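[recover] target loaded
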């Protein structure tokens, strides 16, 4: 996939963040997928997407039930 195509897809994801899908996990998976494409192509990762990915990870971890020991 060309760099311009990836940039366009990232722009679409940014727009979806303004109007997030009903399932935040779906958005997280799509962001993670795009970041993996950037990594595979050896491109620098957009800082804002890395930040959003980390924030979503933290959110999901905070929502997970505590494990019994």
């Amino acid at each position: 996939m060309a760099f311009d195509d990836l940039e366009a897809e990232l722009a679409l994801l940014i727009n979806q963040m303004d109007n997030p899908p009903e399932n935040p996990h779906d958005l997280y998976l799509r962001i993670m997928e795009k970041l993996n494409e950037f990594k595979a192509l050896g491109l620098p990762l957009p800082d804002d997407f890395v930040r959003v990915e980390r924030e979503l990870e933290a959110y999901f971890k905070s929502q997970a039930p505590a494990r019994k020991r």
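[recover] notes: Helices lie at 3-18, 24-41, 47-63.
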